[in-house]
Structures are given as C-alpha cells and as structure tokens.
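From: lab user (bench 3)
To: helpdesk
Subject: output format question, protein + flavin-adenine dinucleotide

Hello, I'm new to running complex predictions and I'm not sure whether the block I got back is the full result or only part of it. Here's what I submitted:
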Amino acid sequence: MKILVPVKRVIDYNVKPRVKADGTGVDLANVKMSMNPFDEIAVEEAIRLKEKGLASEIVVISIGPAKSQETLRSALAMGADRAILVATEDQAEPLAVAKIVKAVADEETPGLIITGKQAIDDDSNQTGQMIAALLGCGQGTFANAISVEGEAVTVTREIDGGLETVKLALPAVITADLRLNEPRYASLPSIMKAKSKPLTTKSPADYGVDTTPRLKTLKVSEPPMRSGGVKVADVDALVAKLAELGVA
Amino acid sequence: MTRTLVWVEHDGASIKDATLSAVTAAAQLGEVHALVAGHNIDGVADEAARITGVARVLKAEGAAYAHGLPENIAPLIAGLLADHDAFLAPATTTGKNIAPRVAALMDVAQISEILSVEGPKTFTRPIYAGNAIATVESSDARLVITVRGTAFAKADPTGGEAPVESVAGPGDAGLSSYQGADIAKNERPELTSAKIVVSGGRALKDAETFAATITPLADRLGAAIGASRAAVDAGYVPNDYQVGQTGKIVAPQVYIAIGISGAIQHLAGMKDSKTIIAINKDEDAPIFQIADIGLVADLFTAVPELAAKV
Ligand SMILES: Cc1cc2nc3c(=O)[nH]c(=O)nc-3n(C[C@H](O)[C@H](O)[C@H](O)COP(=O)(O)OP(=O)(O)OC[C@H]3O[C@@H](n4cnc5c(N)ncnc54)[C@H](O)[C@@H]3O)c2cc1C
Ligand SMILES: Nc1ncnc2c1ncn2[C@@H]1O[C@H](COP(=O)(O)O)[C@@H](O)[C@H]1O
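Helpdesk reply: Thanks, we reran it on our side. This is the complete output you should expect:
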C-alpha cells in the first residue's frame, strides 16, 4: 500500500505572527518557515506504518511556492520516499488543495492519505475532509491512534467529549491530531540522503485545477489587544480581587 | 429570502449549547432551518423546535445518521442545500468533521470559525492562532460556515414553536462504521460554557498532583477544569481538557491559568475571557502580559491556600 501525505510550508510555530501595517495580511518577510507541525505528525505516522511493513511507499506532496521544496526535503529526510511539488504563487485554499491531491491520488492510488488536522496559518481544518469527499472515501479526522488491518483502518479520534473510534474501508483519509505520535528528528545522514530522493515539479494546470481563491480577503487586522493588568502581592490580595469580581 | 440550514449538535438526548450560537449567526443571514439527524431523535427535534429564531425543524431519522458519521451525513446535507443558501455548523469537533465534506460536495470554499457576520457574504475569522483577524468575502453561490461558539450570543432555547418535518437522505454510504466512544462522565460545568475555568499546565507534575491541586479550587469556585497541551500530552488529564488553538476555545467570566507559561497556542483558546488570572512562579512568564491579575508564587503553596480562602 502506498501512502500519500500532503505537507504545507507555514510560519514556524515559535514565531509570533505580526499583521502588516497595510492590513493586507501577515508579515512573512524574513520570518522562519517550517513544515506545519501536524504534517510532521502525519509523515511520522506514514513512516511508522512503513516500518511495520504495512506500507510500501510514502509520497509527499506540497502545493505552494518554490520554497515548499524545503518542506518536501524535510519530509524526505524524515523517511518519505518521493516528493511532488505543485508550484503556485496563489494562496491555494483548502478546496483547491483538495482537488489537486484528489487528482494526484487518482494517479497514485494510495491506500491511505494522511494529512495534518489543521494548518497553523489559515487554521482552516478543512483539507483532509475535502479530499475524502472528492474521493468518495471515509475520513478519520483528529486521529489519536490508527491501526490498519487488511482492507480497513480503525481510527481513534479526539472529539469534544473524549475519544471515539470509527472503522473505515480503505482507501481512506486520516487527519493527524497532536497525540498521534511524536515526530522524529531527521539525522544528518538522512538529510544528505534526502537530497538525492526524487522530487517532481508540477503545476495546478497539470491537474486541471484552478487555484484562484474563492474567498476574497478584504482586510487582515490585529485582534483586540489585551494588556497585562496588576500583580497582587499574595493570596489574600487575590482573594480580595476575586471577591470584587463576585466569584468568591 | 436567504434560507439557512443549521446543524443541531446533540447527544441523542439533548442539544449542545454550541448549536444556539450557530442559530444566532444563521439568523443574521436569513431564515433558520434546523437539521436534527440521528436515531430516535423525536425529543431532540422537539427541543430544536423550541429554540427562538428557528423557523422549521428538519428531522432526518435513521441509524446511519446516529453517530455523526460524515460519510453518511454530508450527502444528506448536500441534498437539503438544494433548498438552502447556507449551511452553518457549530465549530465543534462534529461540525468541523462534517462541514468541509459538505463544502467539497457542493464545490464551495468553506469559511471556518466565523467571529462575526459583516454582510450577506462577508465574515470575520481568526487566522494564525488568533493573532490576526481576516475579513473575507465569499464568491460562491452557497455558503458553508462553521461558527465559533464564544463569538455569538446563545439563542434562547425556549419560546419558539417551529414545525417539525421529516426529511430523508441517501442513508448509509457503506464507507465507515462507528465502533464506540470513551466519553468521561463529568459532573462539572462544561468547559466551553462555564462561567469560571481553572486550568493547569505542565507544572502540575502528574495526574495525581493535578487532581489534588486543581480540583479543590475548581470545586470551591464551581468551575470547569481546563489544561494546556503540555498537561494533556503528559497524561495529567484527558484530551478534551485542552484549551487552545487546536483544543477548545473558551471565554468565561474568569479564567485562572495555573502553572501555564502562556504560549501563543494556549492564548488562542482563552484570550477572549473576561478576566484572566495567572499564577506562575516565573514573573517573566508570557501569561502575565495578558493577565488582568497576576500572582507570582509557587502554585503548590498558593493554590491550596487560595482554595481554603475562597
Ligand atoms: C501545532 C501546535 C498546536 C498546539 N496547540 C496547543 C493548544 O491547543 N493548547 C495549548 O495549551 N498548547 C498548544 N500547543 C503547545 C504550546 O506551544 C506550549 O508548548 C504549551 O501550551 C505549554 O504548556 P504549559 O504552559 O503547561 O507548559 P510550559 O510552557 O512548560 O510552562 C509551565 C509553566 O509553569 C510554571 N511553573 C513551573 N513550576 C511552577 C510552580 N511550582 N508554581 C508556579 N508556576 C510554576 C513555569 O514558570 C512555566 O511558566 C501547541 C503546539 C503546537 C506546535
Ligand atoms: N498547500 C498545501 N500543500 C500541501 N498540503 C496542504 C496544503 N494546505 C493544506 N494541506 C494539508 O491539509 C491539512 C489541513 O490544512 P487546512 O485545511 O488548511 O487547515 C494540512 O495539515 C496539510 O496536511
């Protein structure tokens, strides 16, 4: 079974995003970029399935600017086998990304597609579900644990009330939540080796997909700012404050 | 007249509060129809009919719809959207699971976690862990939206008397099956609708220490309990306690962060709380930059003392 993992290049999660003064977006000039943390978890899960002998090949795909190659190389260094860059300067929305991944899946026929649950830049939490819809297959979102047996995958999902388990026929789409695994660090030799792993570059047009955004961003603004208040000296002063608030 | 279809989130017995916020958002767009899907849901449908602002309840009865399986429910909703201009779901894990599948079936770009309705097709939504707010306008013929519960007032759950009508969908798609759930029974107020939330972080050491330290204070205040990702990852508390960018979004009257540093991913889930209180032994912890009231102290002495004095 082949596994397809879409990975996105995003602002590094340690960086505090700043809104551009002209209100057109978030300033990404000279900002550290990394693989979306959830996508690292997705790649790791694919590698573990391969290590268990349940997967034969891991193909990673990224839709975005040429620099997304770096993200793909990181995934190859972790242990993916092959990469596809679908180069576009458009901010591809989840729906367009899903259409491209669907087209790639039609060619590659993976048994599983593992995405991150959410990209930490647009915070959409849509793409995996959309891929599943377009492929007409099952979706195991917010996965906390998965197990592949024969022609099915059992997925334990993180839901609002706790955990839930569903069983899906393969092929299926999984979206990785934080506690699915802890991604490995790539070793130096594997980083070197990743440089010679195959990376193909395509365009959205190769898959007949139009990446023009459907949502027009009219404005991006700062959220209401909070500022620090007072520090109290001791617990008694805190109790007094709570009493003022009417909670104690 | 714009017609909206709202996903009613329920557990088979009663409607979840998040639905009421979605009804409020939908009412700002047009007439509200509420979809109740599941098995043995007459009681829930009647409850939905009483929500003020709901004009019609559509009831989809069937075992295939019982556990919110998106493979079965999204085609049902896509069918109903022939008669509706917008689908809105609360931004719960169920809503987030179903809505994008509906959007893709309809070839619509979904708008996630809206904070406000600015016009018939214009909305605000948080991006970058809430460090920026985008105003977006849809160019699609239909809208598919998830609604952030803390951003909209809850519709009155009583006072309405909408007619209930049965609808049918394609049923079981044969792609997925529900195997079971591990839902902890919780006698406390629900995290996302509690007036007071007491949250603990990595500093709480382990599950026993977390319980022994945080629970007495929460009990005294009648508060819900939350946690940082670090506390959940380390197994102090279950996953559904996590507050943050990728956990629950809360906005209580009072949020008390104990032994939590204040990473942006945590702040994303609680910075709209009315009053934020932080207890941390590091006076430079980032949480103090947004806390209204801060106490620099060792939590293991301060929290028991606080629990005894409130
Ligand atoms: C993709 C992604 C998503 C994430 N999503 C979330 C999310 O949804 N929610 C979330 O919370 N995090 C999330 N995180 C994690 C986040 O980045 C932080 O790692 C996490 O919030 C830290 O938790 P903490 O504050 O409990 O731990 P720490 O950062 O380790 O802070 C512990 C604090 O306790 C204080 N302390 C220690 N001992 C004592 C004592 N005896 N008395 C008083 N204070 C003490 C320390 O001074 C410190 O400030 C996410 C991260 C990523 C990469
Ligand atoms: N441009 C992209 N290229 C590759 N994968 C993507 C892209 N955008 C989203 N994804 C995948 O979809 C997941 C969810 O993203 P989103 O729906 O944008 O929150 C991510 O974690 C990735 O796995």
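A quick orientation on your result: Chain B has eight helices and 16 strands. Let us know if anything else is unclear.
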